[in-house]
Structures are given as structure tokens and as C-alpha cells.
Automatic annotation (TrEMBL):
InterPro entries: BP-dependent_transpt_permease, MetI-like, MetI-like_sf, OppC_N. It comes from Desulfonema ishimotonii. PROSITE patterns: ABC_TM1 (PS50928). Its main location: membrane. Residues 89-289 form the ABC transmembrane type-1 domain. The keyword Transmembrane helix applies. This is ABC transporter permease.
Length: 303
């Protein structure tokens, strides 16, 4: 398996593309830092016993008034910005990956069934996808969060914010997968190996999952890389508008939101550093997605 990958065109193309290498290295560093946040963060932003309100609004350590123990300064609650960013990125990455996984599960299932079955079922599922696309992520988020807060209260919403955002973003973006998989299935189901599987009497579910699905994974992989960046941006936008993560559970979006009202009062670092980290993460993921799209496009293959 490893030898096949080493000698594959994918790895060959990766080695010859410095942008892809740099993007992948930065991406892995950010992901590893977010996963290891409890181990490498100087402070724990969730431990109120270690937070002193007298340390609030301190500038970064290299500016006048800064302290060495707060490298990137503190926010209005006295939390270390570097620590809250590491923990916040951890939550943002978790929500992004979870939402993309939910999108993929729903979209692949709908796309497979729609493309393979055809007819009225195909038309119904695609019209359902069109209806879903007409609703923005923000609209779905406002509706679901309002219903949830009305039914269970704000306190319960804060406790369930992470899985709720995964569901909201996942339900809002699944048509991207469904349309892509359906288009691939329409091209694959007419080929000889599918006809042969039908002739020997294999059930449709097995044909879809064991024979057609593996041949549709290349575009799914490309979409997933881009959708991770989109999901992280959606979480940041929702948190910035107050519909996502609460301030007590920092994500990159909620950190940007928490410091936005102070950005013109001189406390620029509260918003600037989380915003810079968010932009860096989204850019490297999009660059990897563009490289992967070009490599997996057979029309561009030169080998």
C-alpha cells in the first residue's frame, strides 16, 4: 500500500509542487496544534481559577505594557489570547470536520440513490436538493437555533452548541455532494462492469456501494477539502453573528466577535490574531483543494 502510494502520480505531483508542500505542512502544523491544545497551551481558558480579571486587555508581550507570560496579549476577560486561539481552533476544526462528514454521508447516499434509480425518485431528490440550496446556512442556523433556544433555553443551547453547529452546517451543505455524486453515478452506471453485476444478479445496494461508489470518490475527496474550509468559515460567521459558539467556549469566530467592538479602541489584537489564524487555515486548505482538483482531473494528466 505504502509503496504504491510512493510510486503514484499523486505523490509525484505533490513532490513537484512547492505550494502544495508548504500548504500541507502549515495545515498539519495547525491541526496538530489544535489537537494538542491542552498540552501546549500556556493557560487553560476554561479554568476560571487561573484567570484573573486584572490581567484583562493586556497587549502582546512585545508592546509597551505587555508581559512575557502573555505572548499575544489577553482579551477582555483576562484570558491568554494564544491559549484561547489554540482551543478555539480545536473547536472550529472539530465542527468543520464533523459537518463535512455529515454532509458527505447525506450527500453521497442521496446522490447514489438518485443517480442509480433515476426516474421520478431522481427528480424528487434533486428538487429537494434545489430547495435546500435556496436556503442559506445562516437562514437554517437562525431557524434551528431559535427553535432550540425557545424549546430548551439558552443555557442548554450553550451546552449543545458544538453538535448543534455540526448538524446545522451539515444539513445546509449536503446538496454539493449529492449533485456531484449523482453526476458521477450517471456516467458509471452505463459501463460494462455495472451491467455485468446486474446480469449475475447482484442487488442494487451492493452494486451502488461496492462497485459504483469507489469510482466516484475522487470528486468527493476534492469537495471535502474545500468544504472543510467552507464549514470552518460558516462556523466563524455564525459565531460572529452570535448564533454559534458562546463566548465562554471560544472558537475562532466567537473570539473575533468578542473583540470586534474593541478593535477601534486600541485592543486590535483580540480580533486581529484569531482573524489572521482563520484566514491562514482557510487559505492553506483551499490551496490543497485546488492542487488535489488539478491532480485528480484526468484531462490534466501528463504522465
Amino acid at each position: 500500500m505504502w509503496k504504491r502510494f510512493i510510486h503514484s502520480y499523486l505523490f509525484y505531483s505533490f513532490r513537484r509542487d512547492p505550494v502544495a508542500i508548504v500548504s500541507f505542512v502549515i495545515f498539519m502544523i495547525l491541526v496538530c496544534m489544535s489537537i494538542a491544545a491542552p498540552l501546549i497551551a500556556p493557560h487553560n481558558p476554561y479554568d476560571t481559577a487561573t484567570i484573573d480579571i486584572m490581567d484583562s486587555e493586556m497587549p502582546p508581550s512585545w508592546l509597551d505594557g505587555g508581559e512575557p507570560r502573555f505572548l499575544m496579549g489577553t482579551d477582555t476577560q483576562g484570558r491568554d489570547m494564544l491559549s484561547t486561539m489554540l482551543y478555539g481552533m480545536r473547536i472550529s476544526v472539530f465542527i468543520g470536520c464533523g459537518a463535512v462528514l455529515l454532509q458527505a454521508l447525506i450527500g453521497i447516499a442521496v446522490g447514489l440513490i438518485s443517480g442509480y434509480a433515476g426516474g421520478k425518485l431522481d427528480a424528487f431528490l434533486m428538487r429537494l436538493a434545489d430547495i435546500q440550496l435556496s436556503f442559506s446556512t445562516l437562514m437554517v442556523a437562525i431557524l434551528i437555533s431559535a427553535i432550540f433556544q425557545l424549546a430548551f433555553g439558552v443555557g442548554q443551547y450553550e451546552d449543545m452548541a458544538v453538535p448543534l453547529l455540526v448538524v446545522i452546517i451539515g444539513l445546509a451543505e449536503w446538496p454539493q455532494y449529492a449533485r456531484t455524486v449523482r453526476a458521477s453515478v450517471l456516467g458509471e452506471k452505463k459501463k460494462e462492469y455495472v451491467e455485468a453485476a446486474r446480469v449475475i444478479g447482484l442487488p442494487p445496494l451492493r452494486i451502488m456501494c461496492r462497485h459504483i461508489l469507489p469510482n466516484t470518490l475522487s470528486p468527493v475527496l476534492v469537495i471535502s477539502t474545500v468544504q472543510i474550509a467552507n464549514a470552518v468559515m460558516s462556523e466563524a460567521a455564525l459565531s460572529f453573528l452570535g448564533l454559534g459558539m458562546p463566548v465562554t467556549k471560544p472558537s475562532l469566530g466567537s473570539l473575533i466577535n468578542a473583540g470586534f467592538e474593541y478593535i477601534f479602541s486600541g485592543l486590535w489584537w483580540i480580533t486581529f490574531f484569531p482573524g489572521l489564524l482563520l484566514v491562514l487555515f482557510v487559505v492553506v486548505v483551499n490551496l490543497l483543494g485546488d492542487w488535489l482538483r488539478d491532480v485528480l482531473n484526468p484531462k490534466l494528466y501528463k504522465g
